[in-house]
Amino acid sequence: MTLSLGVSELETIRGYLFQDGRERMILALCRKSLFGVFRLARLFLPHDSDYAERTEAAVTLLAESAYPLIKQLRADGSLSFLQIHSHPAGYPAKFSSIDDRNNGFNTEDVREWNPRAEFLRMVLSRDDISAEYYDYRGGRFRPLALGRVDKLILSLRGESRSNLY
User: Which tens digit of pLDDT belongs to each residue from 143-161?
Assistant: First the structure.
């Protein structure tokens, strides 16, 4: 599996995640192309009030803050769920046991919202990116390849909150 990000998308993601020395999270919906490549369809950039916790080593969103995104995921069977968070305090771009239990959303939540959805996740440090997808058959996360494109046109509709892009 591959996730393809445009340069401007990656700039938006990095600009949001690295505003201060504490972790932040972005939620996104992705569409899978005919060639099996996932592309961003919608980004949710939480407001400070959307977080239950933000420290140098952990981040948790309030579940209700993502309701508009979850509602769209439930309604559209062609979408998948992407969770992106930062490690700004010098931690490497590797997933930790804290990430596995403390993110506020898990693999079973996603399948409950949409049985066909994939669960993808990324972690960014200042210098690196790691990405994984959840293999529901194997019961574990596997590496997700990342691709980068110079220009990507997104189709966005139905925005109702200022933090949906």
Answer: 999 887 554 333 333 333 3
